[in-house]
Fold this protein.
Amino acid sequence: MINGLNDLIDIRKKRLPDINARREKPGAAPGWQVLVCTGTGCTSSASHQVREELARQVQLKKVQARVFRTGCFGFCKMGPLVVIYPGQTLYCLVKKEDVAEIVEKHLLEGQVVERLLYEEPASGERKRRLSDIRFFRAQHRVALRNCGLINPEDITEYIACEGYFALADVLLNWTPVQVVDAIKRSGLRGRGGAGFPTGRKWELAAAAEGPVKYVVCNADEGDPGAFMDRSILEGDPHSVLEAMAIAGYAIGAREGYIYVRAEYPIAVDRLERAIAQARQYGLLGRRIFNTNFDFDIDLRLGAGAFVCGEETALLRSAAGERGEPRPRPPYPAQCGLWGKPTLLNNVETYANVPVIIREGPAWFASLGTENSRGTKVFSLAGKVLNTGLIEVPMGTTLRTVVFDIGGGIPEGRQFKAVQTGGPSGGCIPERYLDTPIDYESLKQLGSMMGSGGMIVLDETDCVVDIAKFYLQFSQDESCGQCTPCRVGTRRMLEILERITQGKGEMEDLNELEELSREVMDASLCGLGQTAPNPVLSTLKYFRDEYEAHIRDKRCPAGVCRALLDYVIDEEKCVACGLCARECVAKAIMGEKKGKPYFIDRQKCLKCGACLARCPKGAIYTA
Ligand SMILES: Cc1cc2nc3c(=O)[nH]c(=O)nc-3n(C[C@H](O)[C@H](O)[C@H](O)COP(=O)(O)O)c2cc1C
Ligand code: SF4
Ligand code: SF4
Ligand code: SF4
Ligand code: FES
């Protein structure tokens, strides 16, 4: 039980040598420490088996080593990941069968298992140390500071990393007004999408009247492909709990709720454990640090509807009602959960708070750009060599992210665009690659920061198809309350569908633009207000691709199936007839062992079966 700062300091002192060893600082604990990632990505490729086998063999062979679980390192593509200290040796794609060799060679003989080291794709060089890998080198981790470093299931490891010291400081030495002021001065803006100034939001919630107020954390994370918030919750859950308690003190609330989707079982489990441990240590509950401040946190599980991430819908859903947005004002700061003043922030926003208090607002404000301070976590996906979770200072260029950290486009293909902001964002073409990443710059380009999805597209991606994908998502996820959103997005989708089928007309492009304006202007919530962005941005930067689909009945990327011609290469065809037998449409003609076969375009259904069947690779799409 922690009664005061001294108890916290004692725990920190005890566990610090282990953390020093992992940070490669003086005062490190002796012996090997083996860290195994247990985030969702690595768990799904059986990292638990690796961890259990490591623990078993270490015991069996009486090795001077301890095995720890950690959260996500961000390099999930290479998982299961194992990192060994001292030496910060990173092993990739580790299987249970590799464990014996790691124990024998690395832990007993002190040598490196070369074959499990990461190989830089460009140079083919094997990198031993985690920090030597380009993917990690250009990053700056603030929100992700403890992910991959500490055991998220052990509160003492968080305390060893100065966890709960910000809360102690605030409760013992600061006034609530000073806390709000520090958040304001830091320049932190909401990481959930809109980028609203966090300090201003705290100020409004603090100024709201009433004896009962709430602090809520938005961990709904509905954007397809995004996993920033999940990784923070899985890798460092206490940072969010600590921040929520600080927020509670700042605005005068005694209760907090984390709204997290039930499809995140590891995150939910880690949060439950973290809350239980924090209560056990007296860091949540009554009279925290022996002050008059009481604060506790509970979970609310969401069913995973995208619209439930919208703040007013989330608050309704958390209160057990239907998760539908309502008009604002009143804002949650005045009328939120159960009608009471409520402060609502995103997971990553909260994760920054304890560091801002500890290191000072000026330190945080020194990172990033004039109007977008600090760092931002992105989930980098699509056509880049190094996909994964990254954190960079605001103002880093898109080029650095795609080509330096991401390692560029695989197989020597051409970069086409980078899609940011998920369903609310847009596609940014090559000529803007040197744009610094910040809220305003991305918006100016017709895209958005959003919550941090970043998908790289190359020449084999069709932008019309991408726009259709996101619009389909918004259409499916619309709650249907307002007609422009419900019907407008459906009309837009029908037009896009026609275009990808080669049935589009040039007037369709104007109609898409008009509908976009109407949907954006007349929708009640952010979903409808931003749903047309993927269409508008692709129309703006890649109009020629839309025109190729309409005028030439051609998909330049070779994606839209209805627009592809299946052709047989006469040079390669050996007239075996296998393709003709596969074709249900009887569209392939020829004589066995005779002249090359050919495809009748009129009859072809474009099913692709012949292409898959040809043993000579003689069939291609044009
Ligand atoms: C359709 C829709 C979905 C949203 N989904 C999320 C989400 O999953 N997570 C999140 O933090 N914010 C989401 N937001 C933004 C929230 O409404 C809100 O602005 C945010 O949680 C506030 O926290 P912040 O100021 O820390 O960003 C969504 C907004 C809309 C319109
Ligand atoms: S804009 Fe769409 S999702 Fe938002 S309230 Fe209206 S219908 Fe529902
Ligand atoms: S694509 Fe399908 S329908 Fe067309 S020729 Fe090949 S097998 Fe026949
Ligand atoms: S399967 Fe290939 S090689 Fe055989 S007839 Fe068809 S195109 Fe020619
Ligand atoms: S889940 Fe293991 S590196 Fe991301």
In short: The first strand starts at residue 32 and ends at 37. The pocket of iron/sulfur cluster (ligand 2) is lined by residues 307, 325, 478-482, 485-486, 523-525, 527-528 (CB under 6 Å). The chain has 25 helices and 19 strands.
